[in-house]
Amino acid sequence: MRFRNTILVLCLSGMAGTASAYDLLDAWRAAREHDAGFAAARAERDAGQEKAVQGRARLLPQIGLSGSITRNNPIEPDMASYTSRGYGVELSQPVFDVGKFADYRRGQAGAALADIQYLANEQQLIVDVSRAYFDVLLAQDSLAATRASKKAYENQLAQARAAFEVGTATITDTHEAQAGYDAAAAQEIVAQSNLEIARNALARLTGLDPAGIQPLAERIELVTAQGALEAWQARALDNSFDVRARAQELETARADLLAARGNRLPTLELNAGYRDNDSGMGPSPKTRASSVGLTVTMPLFAGGGISSQIREAASRELAARDRLEASRRQVREDVRRAYLGVTNGAAYVRAQEQLLVSARSKLESTRLGREVGVRTNLDLLRAEQDYYDTVRSLAEARYNYLTARLQLLQATGELTEAGLAEVNRSLRQAG
């Protein structure tokens, strides 16, 4: 039995040490449950929903119960102590109160704003996770290219030293190869640091082991934005969460202005109550009474404060209008930038792919030319550097293109898990 338990522990330990493979969609789903910032946004959304309930409550009847018991000790010598008791129920119902109606509108706008902000945070988390995911892949690709470049320089250095020893090359070739190797070694340190930073950022968002992420496929589908730029901008103005949030802030400012103006108007309230009292003395100590009435309150003079509040609320409404217009303009610019990032990004990826083919052909030709003596060692070093630089540039172009696709959907308020799944298909699936 002890042997079997030992085997079980060893198996579990081995499984724990192996990072499970996951893709971009898995990372996003993990981030929804792990990221503390998104958890806070979810709680803020839930809290914001209560604003609608609170605003509506101001228009509904208010019912209260009161009771009292008092022990009375008269100072007159011929009067005995006695106890009086009483309870009552009061009801009040606003009939006309602009301020409370404004509270209702503020509550509705606050609840809507909480929903919008939560959805906006959800979209931003998709973009943040995707960017962190692609940053890890880019750092891995950069490190791999740097190590390959370093290995090539190492081989060149060994060949240059051997050629110098037999007298078929000058010391200059050795120095050039040594300089290239040292530069690659320095770049490798930077690349390792960048990879560690990128992995930590992804782990912070998802709680997953960054070593298990799926890489990008060798060839990705380059999809351009369907439709004209103007059509995307029109969709963004209708669906953008930023525009919708500014619109709800304007609605709140309008409710504030309505409330400020309502301070000049009378309020009318329906009141009803029932009282049951026992005075504890006299021939008829118990009394019961009910009441129904209307209460009118009319402000006459407030020292100019109401007029000041109205002017302040009007200015804040104007500011909210301007913020809404600024948001619309910014959304148009964001859509234009993302649209060009997708359209031009696809073309740039194709150009980088063709450039990589050319750089590879140039490197092979330069190697052959060096063997036959028509190219120098420096020519070969430059060709190798150009090739690995192109490898890194192509990787960066592909990740930027995929990020731009997500940003275009985000700018139009249409970034969902389905849109992320489309980008996720570009990843090489395990198995």
From TrEMBL:
Belongs to the outer membrane factor (OMF) (TC 1.B.17) family. Residues 270-290 are annotated as: Disordered. Pfam families: OEP. It comes from Gulbenkiania indica. GO terms for cellular component: cell outer membrane; efflux pump complex. This is Type I secretion outer membrane protein, TolC family. Residues 1-21 form the signal peptide. InterPro entries: OMP_efflux, T1SS_OMP_TolC, TolC-like. NCBIfam families: type_I_sec_TolC. It is found in: Cell outer membrane. It comes from the Bacteria. Its main location: membrane. GO terms for molecular function: efflux transmembrane transporter activity; porin activity. Keywords: Cell outer membrane, Membrane, Signal, Transmembrane, Transmembrane beta strand, Transport.
